[in-house]
């Protein structure tokens, strides 16, 4: 029987085992440009490994997911981190899981606000981009380079994500 998954708000602390939340955290702010600009400094780090690896910036244009959504798989990137920052100010879902001896554990679902980005640490299990309600663009910072940077796992049974209440 497919197991329903609950949805929690995305917070820095809840997401800490998986990476960082990219948001205007007052504790990280310093004024620059003669006071004209607030710099929220070093919210996350892009990590890339392997000979010839480089950090790249991309735009992902995600089609909205249909709900209830049957989650059947997770993926991870063994050679680099991956961040998603929404460009249209729309909420979206972030799905991650702990590693259980080389396989993803039960997925954990977070509802991200449209002013929150996430940075998945290298090799953290996550579900591919999950946009809600409309086509949404994201600035994605991740790795390019030699080697296969995508590992996928398919669960024996799907999990169910219901339509998030926005
Ligand atoms: N495969 C790819 O570039 N996208 C995924 O990594 C994703 O997390 O959306
Ligand atoms: Ni990914």
TrEMBL record:
<dbReference type="InterPro" id="IPR011051">
    <property type="entry name" value="RmlC_Cupin_sf"/>
</dbReference>
<comment type="function">
    <text>Catalyzes the catabolism of the allantoin degradation intermediate (S)-ureidoglycolate, generating urea and glyoxylate. Involved in the utilization of allantoin as nitrogen source.</text>
</comment>
<protein>
    <recommendedName>
        <fullName>Ureidoglycolate lyase</fullName>
        <ecNumber>4.3.2.3</ecNumber>
    </recommendedName>
</protein>
<dbReference type="InterPro" id="IPR023525">
    <property type="entry name" value="Ureidogly_lyase_bac"/>
</dbReference>
<dbReference type="InterPro" id="IPR024060">
    <property type="entry name" value="Ureidoglycolate_lyase_dom_sf"/>
</dbReference>
<comment type="similarity">
    <text>Belongs to the ureidoglycolate lyase family.</text>
</comment>
<comment type="subunit">
    <text>Homodimer.</text>
</comment>
<comment type="pathway">
    <text>Nitrogen metabolism; (S)-allantoin degradation.</text>
</comment>
<keyword id="KW-0659">Purine metabolism</keyword>
<dbReference type="Pfam" id="PF04115">
    <property type="entry name" value="Ureidogly_lyase"/>
</dbReference>
<dbReference type="InterPro" id="IPR047233">
    <property type="entry name" value="UAH_cupin"/>
</dbReference>
<keyword id="KW-0456">Lyase</keyword>
<dbReference type="InterPro" id="IPR007247">
    <property type="entry name" value="Ureidogly_lyase"/>
</dbReference>
<dbReference type="GO" id="GO:0050385">
    <property type="term" value="F:ureidoglycolate lyase activity"/>
</dbReference>
């Amino acid at each position: 029987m497919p197991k329903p998954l609950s949805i929690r708000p995305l917070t820095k602390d809840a997401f800490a085992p998986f990476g960082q939340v990219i948001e205007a955290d007052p504790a990280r702010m310093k004024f620059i440009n003669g006071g004209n600009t607030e710099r929220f400094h070093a919210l996350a780090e892009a990590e890339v490994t392997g000979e010839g690896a480089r950090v790249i910036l991309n735009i992902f244009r995600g089609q909205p997911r249909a709900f209830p959504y049957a989650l059947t798989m997770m993926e991870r990137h063994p050679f680099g981190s991956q961040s998603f920052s929404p460009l249209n100010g729309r909420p979206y879902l972030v799905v991650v899981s702990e590693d259980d001896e080389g396989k993803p554990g039960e997925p954990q679902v977070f509802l991200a606000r449209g002013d929150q980005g996430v940075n998945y640490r290298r090799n953290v299990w996550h579900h591919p981009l999950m946009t809600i309600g409309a086509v949404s663009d994201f600035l994605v910072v991740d790795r390019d380079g030699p080697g296969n940077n995508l590992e996928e796992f398919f669960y024996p049974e799907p999990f169910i994500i219901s339509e998030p209440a926005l």
